[in-house]
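Today's session is about reading a structure prediction critically. Students often jump straight to the picture, but the first step is always the sequence itself: look for stretches that repeat, for charged clusters, for runs of hydrophobic residues. Only then move on to the predicted structure, which in these notes is written as discrete structure tokens rather than atom positions. Here is the chain we will use throughout the hour.
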Amino acid sequence: MNGKEIKKAVDIAARAGTMLLRAGSDITRVEGTIKHMMVSFGVKKYDIFTITNGIFISASADDAPEGMGDYTRICEVPRNSSNLGKIDMINTLSRDIEAGLCDMDGAEKRLDEIEKSKPYKTVINLTAAAVASGAFSFLFGGSWIDALLSAVIGFSYYYLFILLDKTKLSKLLTNAICGCILALMTIGFTKLIPGVNMNMVIVGAIMPLIPGVAFVNAVRDIAAGDYISGAIRMIDAIVVAAGIAVGVGAVIGVFSWFGIL
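Below is the predicted structure for this chain, in token form.
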């Protein structure tokens, strides 16, 4: 391969890896996808290093002297969120490239299509949050009333979460605010409707905010030997959980201190 072809192959692989990281993929999958793509395109001399917020790739021609003719690409990925749909589409693209069904030009076009793919509509996300909240409340032992209230609260505060996420606030502050609203709504319903189990409503409504995917990916990264990335993901999950706990705990603590609860 000449230098131009290597540059194009690295750019495509780096772009696919960046999209995977932004979609919340684990490090092993990201590096594996990049390697499969580059090898399939004919790149044999390469080095890859990936962490949760960055990708570093260096490649060179087979006949290039050591340290000569290298092409290096660095990609920063400052924020990420879970999007399993994009991960699946990029994985499918990687398999097609490995099977010889897609060349570099075709890969670029498909990556354009994946990047432009529309996320789920807001109403679908809100409905999913409501259903999940109500289902978890009922699963943990709440009554039908508790589950219904959890669904209403989950729908409401998750809309606020979507709005706050667009402002680029820190995860700690965003989740703390959502936790406060969640607790305030729960206390309000508890005072208005007799027989409501506040604990079951809060436990159910809080579940859509729990960083389960991030925590699982952190464990997977650590198990695969990617200790830096695993530690970063674990800290990120702890920060989110801490924000939720601070928000909910602060409201309950204040109301308890004034004797309202």
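Discussion point for the tutorial: The CA atoms of residues 32 and 45 lie 15 Å apart.
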